[in-house]
């Protein structure tokens, strides 16, 4: 599994790593992000209705809207699959979700707005994101991507839309309902959190330990997989936000060379130029290269998709997503990862357990004899997946 330097994929620098094809935004080309979503007038009311349901805090209602027209005119899925997954998790796993999940849901909503101001915000963020990559005014097709690829998977684009260009603040003031905000965890403080530089000090199954560059302070965050492609000593940029349990990154931080992280620690407002110089430094050694593209911004995990797929491969992937997630969790319950020489992929196991329908499948496959294994796994993985493990135990025959 790729995690520390000793376990990263061979012959692949961070800049060279490519997203697996199945993750590409389905069925949409073109250049304007909003026009891509609004491919016809008959879909626009559905998009507005689903957005409105989300803004009310009604994940189930948004899913119901999506279910009315799941496919576009080309016969391909119209809605982004990670949005559908996010809504399913919110609607079905609510009893085990911490309040920070609602805060991350708000971030996702703020980044997917349909209005004219949202359009301008995305267009400006797209320009800057391309400049950071060293391709100002570049032809996206020549670069092998679409505007949707940038909007959905570019780390800089997302940061700009939410923070520097005011998307999150605008959503909180104008769109989010009181009911949605009531379920969030300190989201107003998230909107004001500056960029920071951090060094990974250590990882254990439950926690990541970081040094705050510039202050020497040490902080711990839940191990949701943010260090999947980092090793101790590696540096990253991110926004460390407050939660009930302490602190976490609002999304997985971006790997950067140490000098870039130190520079941003001293000048948080200058992070865009610092990242641009790091990304365009072709003289950097492969292990020091950073890339702003190809990132995932999921609700409950920070494990990159490529790392999740490698974990599936480790237990004999079939290529069927739900089946592979079930197999990964079953392998963990059987002790498959207990004695391996490198660190077990516990964040990937947690991510698999939280995928749609996986826990339901496990409840059918497991018996009372598996309760101790479930309890052990609950003590080994972090975040809401641990709570879901504990919730499964009574379903196997034990009184709550």
Terminus-to-terminus distance: 36 Å
* Biggest beta sheet attributes: 5 strands, antiparallel
Helix content: 40-55%
> What is the structural class?
alpha+beta
Average of per-residue pLDDT values: 89
**Strand residues, percent:** 5-15%
Please tell me how large the radius of gyration is: 21 Å
Question: Total domains, how many?
Answer: 3
Order of the strands making up the biggest sheet: 3-2-1-4-7
Regions with pLDDT < 50 over 5+ consecutive residues? 1-31
Number of helices: 19
The oligomerization state is single chain
Secondary structure: number of strands: 7
Series of H and E elements: HHHHHHHHHHHEEEEEEEHHHHHHHH
- The outline comes out as globular
Element layout with pairings:
Elements: H1 33-37, H2 44-55, H3 59-68, H4 81-92, H5 99-110, H6 116-132, H7 147-153, H8 155-164, H9 167-174, H10 178-182, H11 187-191, E1 196-203, E2 207-212, E3 218-222, E4 235-238, E5 240-243, E6 246-249, E7 254-256, H12 258-266, H13 271-279, H14 305-314, H15 321-333, H16 346-353, H17 358-365, H18 371-378, H19 384-395
Antiparallel strand pairs: 1-2, 1-4, 2-3, 4-7, 5-6
Helix pairs in contact: 2-3, 3-4, 5-9, 6-8, 12-13, 14-15, 15-16, 15-17, 18-19
Structural overview:
This protein is α+β, with helices and mostly antiparallel strands. It is 45% helix and 8% strand. The strands form two sheets. The chain has a five-stranded antiparallel beta sheet with strand order 3-2-1-4-7. The two termini are 36 Å apart. Residues 1-31 have low confidence and may be disordered. Residues 1-34 are annotated as: Disordered. Residues 1-26 have a biased composition (Basic residues).
């Amino acid at each position: 599994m790729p995690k520390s330097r000793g376990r990263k994929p061979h012959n692949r620098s961070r800049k060279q790593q490519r997203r697996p094809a199945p993750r590409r935004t389905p069925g949409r080309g073109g250049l304007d992000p909003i026009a891509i979503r609004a491919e016809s007038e008959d879909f626009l009311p559905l998009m507005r209705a689903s957005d409105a349901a989300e803004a009310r805090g009604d994940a189930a209602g948004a899913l119901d809207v999506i279910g009315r027209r799941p496919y576009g005119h080309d016969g391909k899925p119209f809605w982004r699959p990670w949005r559908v997954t996010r809504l399913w998790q919110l609607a079905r796993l609510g009893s085990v979700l911490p309040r920070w999940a609602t805060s991350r849901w708000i971030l996702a909503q703020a980044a997917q707005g349909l209005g004219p101001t949202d359009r301008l915000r995305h267009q400006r963020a797209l320009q800057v994101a391309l400049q950071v990559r060293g391709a100002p005014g570049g032809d996206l097709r020549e670069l092998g991507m679409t505007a949707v690829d940038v909007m959905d998977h570019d780390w800089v684009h997302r940061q700009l839309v939410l923070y520097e260009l005011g998307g999150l603040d605008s959503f909180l003031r104008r769109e989010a309902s009181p009911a949605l905000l009531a379920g969030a965890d300190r989201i107003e403080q998230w909107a004001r959190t500056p960029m920071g530089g951090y060094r990974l000090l250590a990882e254990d199954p439950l926690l990541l330990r970081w040094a705050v560059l510039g202050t020497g302070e040490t902080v711990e965050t839940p191990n949701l997989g943010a260090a999947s492609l980092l090793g101790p000593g590696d540096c990253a940029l991110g926004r460390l936000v407050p939660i009930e349990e302490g602190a976490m990154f609002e999304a997985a931080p971006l790997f950067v060379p140490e000098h870039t992280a130190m520079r941003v620690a001293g000048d948080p407002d200058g992070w865009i130029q610092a990242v641009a110089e790091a990304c365009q430094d072709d003289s950097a050694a492969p292990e020091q290269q950073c890339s702003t593209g190809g990132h995932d911004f999921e609700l409950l995990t920070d494990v990159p998709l490529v790392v999740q797929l490698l974990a599936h491969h480790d237990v004999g992937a079939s290529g069927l997503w739900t089946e592979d997630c079930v197999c990964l969790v079953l392998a963990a319950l059987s002790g498959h990862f207990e004695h391996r020489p490198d660190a077990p992929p516990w964040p990937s196991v947690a991510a698999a357990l939280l995928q749609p329908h996986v826990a339901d499948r496990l409840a059918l496959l497991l018996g009372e004899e598996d309760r101790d294994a479930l309890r052990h796994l609950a003590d080994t993985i972090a975040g809401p997946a641990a709570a879901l493990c504990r919730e499964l135990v009574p379903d196997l025959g034990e009184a709550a």
